[in-house]
Amino acid sequence: MTSTDYAMYIAGLPRVLAGAAALFRDTEGRVLIVEPNYREGWTLPGGTIESDTGETPRQAARRETAEEIGLDVELGALLAIDWSHGTGRPPIVAYIYDGGVLPEERFAAIRLQEEELLSWKLIDRAEAAAHLPGQLGLRVVAALDVLARGNGPVELENGHPVR
User: What is the pTM of this model?
Assistant: First the structure.
């Protein structure tokens, strides 16, 4: 196979998007979520992995968190990885890392990236499904379950644990 043939082969492969986020909690166990200005609904701090730069999922979660909310925090364990099918888009592989439990003063230091975010708030586990659309809500609950049980990470497909 020539290099041109190989390049054509690679260009013809199916595309998969990849994203990474951090799950930050307060001392009461509530989860930090952010409201983007470019689409409806709430999400976790995080974003797209820049694989063309060699960025890893963990690096992306940390970079995006620092950019979006001004918190540059060394992330803990991988909590969940989700293969998420979509309509009108390629599948997404979504990683969630443990951002840890932050004291009040860290939340007070949050500075939103105005180009992308409108606001932030803390929600409890029961509110996850109501505030986080579809599979993301399921993904967050699964990640919280990993933290509660002390095991993990959990493998998910469309937000549901793979058994």
Answer: 0.91
